[in-house]
Design goal:
alpha/beta, 8 helices, five-stranded parallel β-sheet, binds ligand Z5A, 13% strand, single chain, globular, Rossmann fold
Length: 212
């Protein structure tokens, strides 16, 4: 019997503003990978570990005022824990890792959004990630007014959803700039298109990556 050869480990991230449809597309990618027999680990940032979930609760608590530098370091702490205890071990086991947000969210939100210097963010992020960079990043791009409109029905807003529209416009422009600087890594999709079409485009790119 011929041994089954699995694709090489790949690290795929989903990025975008609020309400862009990341969770929707992640929940569609998961069964497709499973049906293809690809061992995959799905996780998210901030969070994905017991320590990270506690950090997440603080970061998204609307009652807490958190200084931008402290906020950045908390995202980095959650990421350092996730990379070392979850992502690297899964990749070492040969699994495909799919993460809802990763370091590019830091550059977009804390850099372009909050105004912290990008070289400083990149330097600390390189330490936190140990240099682990995504193979593929899917950017679901949406006008912030539309994205925030989609999530408005959810009730109480978290700390970042309460930030003003100008903040969300800056981070959207940031994501687009990051993607334009590294087109090989990024798949940029218009997130206002029907979810079925987006799912098909994402699967086409992911299956091509796994076939390489
Ligand atoms: N953050 C940061 O600042 N720095 C960092 O380094 C990191 C994160 C890692 C995490 O929040 C917060 O942390 C986030 C950035 C910040 N900001 N905030 N707030 P989160 O994990 O709670 O939330 P999120 O990542 O922003 O996800 P979200 O708001 O839940 O949105 P989503 O997952 O992208 O969307 P969705 O839940 O799939 O869809 C939203 C709605 O749109 C829902 O009703 C869907 O049915 C609908 N939808 C989805 N797709 C479509 C299409 N194609 N057409 C029409 N309607 C659609």
């Amino acid at each position: 019997m011929t041994a089954r050869t699995f694709p090489p480990p790949a690290f795929i991230t989903f990025e975008g503003g609020e309400g862009a449809g990341k969770s929707t597309q992640l929940s569609r990618l998961q069964p497709r990978l499973a049906a293809a027999g690809v061992p995959a680990l799905f996780t998210k940032e901030p969070g994905g570990t017991p320590a990270g979930e506690q950090i997440r609760a603080a970061l998204l608590d609307p009652a807490l005022e958190i200084d931008p530098l402290a906020e950045f370091l908390l995202y980095s702490a959650s990421r350092a824990q996730l990379v070392r205890t979850v992502l690297q071990p899964a990749l070492a086991r040969g699994e495909v890792v799919v993460c809802d947000r990763y370091a590019d969210s830091t550059l977009a939100y804390q850099g372009y959004g909050r105004g912290l210097p990008l070289p400083f963010l990149r330097s600390v992020t390189a330490e936190a990630t140990g240099g682990l960079t995504p193979t593929l990043s899917v950017l679901l791009d949406i006008d912030p007014a539309a994205g925030l409109g989609r999530v408005a029905q959810r009730g109480q807003k978290d700390r970042l959803e309460r930030a003003d529209l100008a903040f969300h416009r800056r981070l959207r422009a940031g994501f687009l700039e990051l993607a334009a600087a590294d087109p090989e890594r990024w798949l940029v999709l218009d997130a206002t298109r029907p979810a079925d079409e987006l799912e098909a485009d994402i699967w086409a790119r992911v299956s091509a990556l796994l076939a390489q």
